[in-house]
Design a protein that fits this description.
Chain lengths: 334, 506
């Protein structure tokens, strides 16, 4: 192959067919379960798949930004729960549902800000910081609610974020998953932010070479803090949908959910070492996990199978990523 | 190259640093330093590692705050607090380590921090067009839309220079820009620098490669131990004079005139028809007690040959004979067990665990000999390490010293000690003196001399011809993955080597 041809084949303009692998796996899984699952190929199952994607999806979108900077956020799940517990407390005080939700999102955003300040300004390692705030958020939510379960029973809010309604006049649209409209809309906004704005560019730059970004005159501390704050905000938004779907928020839960979100990001092909990543991939990763969950259930296999298979897909995704990197290195140095 | 040798330009003074002081806790890093730069001048700044060159440049560009002295730039006193402020005044710095974001494209790197915008969104088209215009004006042929990790080191360097120039920099500081480049690439860089000079840019050029200074610099300022030593016109001094100014003593660097290996020395290693990635049918022999130099341009396949031989990379075909017997080497473990040690060019990345102590590094390849039922025999480890620390005269207060606290030369010696502890008979040195100052270099040369006296055999890959001519008993020259020639040291000259190294075999 001539130098010229090498250059072409690796340039951004040509299409990377390996990028199609993750979506292909998703589609194949769907087809597999459609054939072998019991009653899987139905609108009902599709709605279940979508409903299972919301809160993990929002967390995964947020943490994609963090992972592209080369960092990690382990506090996603408990941050979400902590925010919603405090929102629920506000409901008990007699707050309006919308004000309560806003408070919940604000609390989650604040935890994200705290993460960001500790990581960017105090230069603490993200893994440890967010492990700490994971526990702090979990404990704080339980303390402030005196370990009381919070309930989001307001129907009007569920109609906005979960199912369109139970008005019989709506017919089959009653089960319409409104959440997916929100998820896709916010995904689009996040995509534009990551790929078309300074904030997004600096997110990649910091993950690619933090010191170089700093020496280029970028206010890295500020932008890195913003990335973690944004991630906290996404956890808050995830909380709204979690509340809409599950109604009850139980104190001292939420840990472990962050790993599902991170798994989604990894399945989507974002590298844990920073500098590269894609929100589209993250969405595909999240949907892949939901298809697995719903599909395995339709085959009569329980939760433990879902966990096992998700783990398998994560390892497969990392293997694929590694293969892609080694392929890319082969044609280096123009 | 003669035409560039000329007296210092008589242009006006652009930068004047006088009486610069910088004190770190426990170290007087800069002591009454001075430096002067004229418009349109390439001014080399030389000195051993730790002489204070980089510190002086960091004071100039505002990364460090000075503790005393004055800096006049265009006749005005300046007090910079950050690289951004320096940039705003037209002072750009290209750091020793590449400071690009490898995943970002060339255009994205050049305009990082001041991206062309369309409203709230990035204007990728304009960024690419502007970058193309800039690169074209500098005669750099690179696609602005390609990710930087797809470029060679030399191209990446040019991107960095382009980036610095895009800030309208009048003064450019280049910290060892040629360290990672092949001779061809260095020539390309020099053409580029001369071009910049012709456009009126002034350049401070920091380098360890004294041989290249006559080609590129007008004047040379020498520093030693944080102090200013002298500023001279490049055409007025010899390399030896510069070295003696740098080290405060005279070092003679004479090429070897004839092989020091007895003619009847047995062949210890033979490689036959080795084929691997970028290695095309390579054969060579190594004699006992010999230093076999591997010359060639970067990318000639020398490192790849050694890595394939060592089992670090897969080989397609080929035969390796040790003491005349064929051996199978499928992994570094095999090679080490057969007594072959490989000293990577990138010590920190591959050769050493810098966060561990000298003794821990020394026994790392051979821990089995230092354990009983799983426990490490600490006393034995320390005793053996001590022995090699003395033998190789590694300068350290204790064998428990962390390797990261040692100088580059001493780190290199620790790697050697590691393979000696393992009792390797064949040591492969890949660019053993890269990034090492003159004093430490000569110690490494002595060390290699001592090794062959001990009966070890050495393969040395080097991109510095004087070093090869000084050390080798025999030279193998490679080009484009093939061996293009073999030279006995008695007949080898720089010209002959370069002829073979640039030979196209396709």
């Amino acid at each position: 192959m001539s130098q010229q041809a090498l250059e072409k084949s690796t340039a951004g303009s040509s299409f990377d067919w390996q990028k199609l692998f993750a979506p292909l796996v998703m589609v194949l899984l769907y087809v597999f379960f459609a054939i072998f699952g019991n009653n899987f190929f139905s609108v009902e199952s599709l709605v279940n798949i979508l409903n299972a994607s919301y809160f993990i999806g929002f967390m995964a979108l947020g943490v994609t930004f963090v992972i592209i900077t080369g960092g990690i956020d382990l506090s996603l799940g408990t941050t979400m729960i902590c925010g919603m517990l405090i929102g629920g407390l506000a409901l008990n005080w007699g707050w309006n549902i919308w004000a309560a939700l806003l408070l919940g999102v604000a609390v989650a955003t604040l935890i994200g800000l705290l993460n960001g300040v500790m990581i960017a300004y105090l230069k603490l390692p993200p893994f440890i910081v967010t492990l700490g705030t994971q526990m702090m958020g979990m404990g704080f939510g339980a303390i402030i609610t005196k370990v009381t379960t919070m309930r989001y029973t307001d129907q009007s809010f569920k109609h906005v974020f979960y199912k369109l309604g139970n008005d019989p006049s709506l017919g089959f649209l009653r089960a319409f998953p409104v959440g997916i409209v929100w998820l896709l809309a916010i995904f689009l906004i996040a995509w534009v932010v990551l790929n078309r704005t300074k904030f997004g560019r600096y997110t990649f730059a910091m993950g690619s070479n933090y010191e170089a970004a700093r020496l280029s005159g970028i206010r890295t501390k500020y932008w890195l803090t913003l990335v973690y704050t944004l991630c906290g905000f996404f956890c808050g938004v995830a909380g709204i949908f979690y509340s809409a779907v599950y109604t009850t928020i139980i104190p001292s839960t939420g840990n472990g959910l962050e790993l599902l979100a991170i798994a989604g990001v990894v399945i989507g092909g974002t590298s844990m070492s920073g500098g590269t990543g894609s929100l589209t991939g993250t969405m595909i990763g999240v949907f892949t996990m939901s298809i697995l969950k719903t599909g395995l259930m339709s085959m009569g296999l329980q939760g433990q199978w879902q966990t096992f298979m998700t783990g398998l897909v994560v390892v497969g995704a990392v293997l694929l990523d590694q293969y892609r990197i080694s392929q890319a290195n082969r044609v280096k140095k123009v | 190259m003669q035409e560039s040798i000329k007296a210092a330009p008589s242009g006006e003074v652009l930068l004047q640093m006088e009486g610069i002081e910088k004190v770190f806790p426990g170290v007087h890093a800069l002591n009454n330093c001075r430096f002067e730069l004229k418009r349109g001048e390439v001014h080399a700044l030389v000195g051993e590692n730790g002489a204070g060159k980089s510190t002086l440049m960091k004071v100039l560009t505002g990364i460090y705050k000075r503790d005393g002295g004055t800096i006049l730039y265009k006749g005005q006193e300046i007090n910079l607090n950050s690289p951004e402020e320096a940039q705003a005044l037209g002072i750009g710095i290209i750091h020793q380590e590449l400071n690009l974001m490898p995943h970002l494209t060339v255009a994205e790197n050049i305009f990082i921090g001041r991206e062309p915008m369309r409203g709230p969104f990035l204007d990728k088209k304009k960024a690419n067009a502007d970058a193309r215009k800039l690169l074209n004006s500098l005669n750099i042929d690179i696609d602005p839309d390609i990710a930087c990790n797809k470029l060679s080191v030399a191209k990446q360097q040019m991107v960095e220079i382009a980036k610095a120039l895009s800030y309208d920099s009048e003064l450019l500081v280049m910290d060892e820009p040629s360290a990672a480049l092949t001779d061809n690439e260095v020539q390309e860089l020099f053409l580029f620098i001369r071009d910049l000079k012709a456009r009126g840019h002034a350049i401070i050029y920091i380098s360890h490669r004294l041989d290249e200074l006559p080609q590129i610099s007008d004047r040379i300022t020498v520093m030693r131990d944080g102090q200013y030593v002298n500023t001279v016109n490049t055409c007025d001094v010899t390399k030896e004079q510069i070295i003696s100014m740098m080290v405060g003593r005279v070092i003679y660097e004479q090429p070897k005139t004839k092989s020091e290996v007895p003619a009847d020395a047995p062949t210890i290693l033979e490689v036959k028809n080795l084929v691997a990635q970028n290695v095309k049918n390579v054969s060579f022999k190594l004699k006992k007690g010999e230093i076999l130099g591997f010359a060639g341009l970067m990318g000639a396949g020398r490192t790849e040959t050694m890595r394939a031989l060592f089992g670090a990379d897969p080989k397609t075909s080929g035969e390796v004979l040790l003491d005349g017997k064929p051996v199978e080497i499928h992994s570094p473990v095999d090679a080490v067990n057969l007594g072959i040690g490989y000293l990577s060019e990138d010590r920190k990345a591959f050769g050493l665990a810098v966060g561990l102590s000298i003794s821990e590094n020394c026994v790392m390849a051979n821990l089995d000999d230092f354990t009983s039922s799983g426990f490490v025999k600490r006393k034995k480890v320390h005793a053996v390490t001590k022995e090699f620390v003395d033998k190789l005269s590694i300068k350290t207060p204790s064998v428990r010293q962390l390797v990261k606290n040692l100088s580059g030369g001493n780190q290199q010696k620790v790697v050697v000690a590691k393979w000696l502890v393992k009792d390797c008979g064949i040591l492969i040195f890949d660019e053993p003196t890269r990034g090492i100052d003159v004093g430490a270099k000569s110690e490494i040369y002595h060390l290699m001399g001592d090794l062959v006296k001990m009966g070890k055999s050495v393969i040395m890959i080097s991109s510095e011809l004087p070093e090869l001519l000084r050390m080798s008993d025999r030279l193998v020259v490679m080009s484009e993955g093939r061996v293009t020639g073999e030279l006995d040291i008695a007949e080898a000259t720089q010209e002959k080597i370069m002829t073979l190294a640039t030979m196209a075999m396709s």
